[in-house]
Specification:
The chain has a domain at 2-129: 2-Layer Sandwich (Tetrahydropterin Synthase, Chain A). The protein is 46% helix and 22% strand. The chain contains ten helices and eight strands. The strands form three sheets. It has a three-stranded antiparallel beta sheet. Strands 4-5-8 form a three-stranded antiparallel beta sheet. A two-stranded antiparallel ribbon has the order 6-7. Strand 6 and strand 7 form a beta hairpin. Helix 1 (2-10) crosses helix 2 and helix 8 crosses helix 9 (207-222). It is globular. The protein starts with a helix and ends with a strand.
Length: 259
């Protein structure tokens, strides 16, 4: 309120000019705090009515109290609504989306930065398209997951989709299966495996074989379809899907977290 009063005084009572002053103030704050860390905020997900498309967005700020402010949460809902309505192909396109007043989403974010005095940023924007998309939001509001599945064969896979989304939230897989793991990660894991074996006194001619064995363990622990199902360790996720409906599989997933 004091900022508004000062702006009106500076603008000699001109309401529109005062709004411009406040917007410039927001831009100054945005510039000053551009390098500040944003480790708090909210993650929101939404799936289309036909469950073929899912969106997850993360709006971040600097401190937890700001993440609970109504204006911040309303802004997060505006970000989600823009993502759903436009199907923007990138974060930049999303931020350029015109709002009801004709100004961009980024302008509204900058305005709130001027009002609150903290850096606010859309730190993640992801989409998933599949035959069936299921979303999961963790209770702390800082973690969201989208899972895309195919070959449902008319089976209602909502519950298994939720279970798998919760698995992703908890176990943080880095890829669907070993084919999705990048070569740099594979090389690093092999080198770590060799060093561990060497430190254990294993002979040099056995290091490669031992490292490959450790790599296979890494695949089992770090790729979704090969992970043990947290609710039933007798099944891998791949086996759980097959048990639910023959040929059912996960084609894509996104995990977005703040903090």
């Amino acid at each position: 309120m004091m900022d508004c009063k000062k702006a009106l005084t500076e603008a000699n009572g001109d309401f529109e000019a005062a709004k411009d002053i406040l917007r410039k103030q927001g831009q100054k704050i945005a510039s000053k705090r551009a390098d500040n860390a944003t480790s708090e905020g909210i993650v929101l997900t939404q799936v289309s009515d036909n469950a073929a498309t899912g969106v997850v967005v993360a709006l971040a700020c600097e401190t937890e109290p700001v993440s609970k402010v109504e204006d911040f949460r309303n802004l997060a809902q505006s970000v989600l609504a823009a993502a759903v309505s436009t199907g923007a192909s990138s974060k930049e396109e999303l931020l350029a989306t015109p709002q009801a007043d004709g100004r961009s989403l980024q302008d509204h974010i900058t305005d709130l930065m001027g009002k609150i005095g903290e850096k606010i940023d859309v730190v993640s924007y992801e989409t998933v398209k599949a035959e069936k998309v299921v979303a999961y939001n963790h209770s702390n509001g800082k973690l969201g997951v989208l899972v895309g599945m195919s070959n449902t064969n008319g089976t209602d896979v909502t519950e298994v989709g939720k279970d798998i989304a919760m698995q992703i939230a908890a176990m943080k897989p880095i890829a669907l299966d070993k084919d999705g793991v990048d070569s740099a990660t594979i090389e690093r894991e092999i080198e770590i495996g060799k060093e561990q074996a060497r430190a254990e006194g294993k002979p040099e001619n056995m290091l490669e074989k031992i490292a490959q064995g450790k790599l296979n363990k890494f695949y089992k622990e770090s790729t979704l379809l090969n992970q043990e199902f947290v609710k039933d360790s007798s099944l891998t996720i791949s086996q759980l899907l097959e048990k639910t409906s023959k040929g059912l599989t996960v084609t894509e997933f996104k995990r977005v977290a703040i903090g």
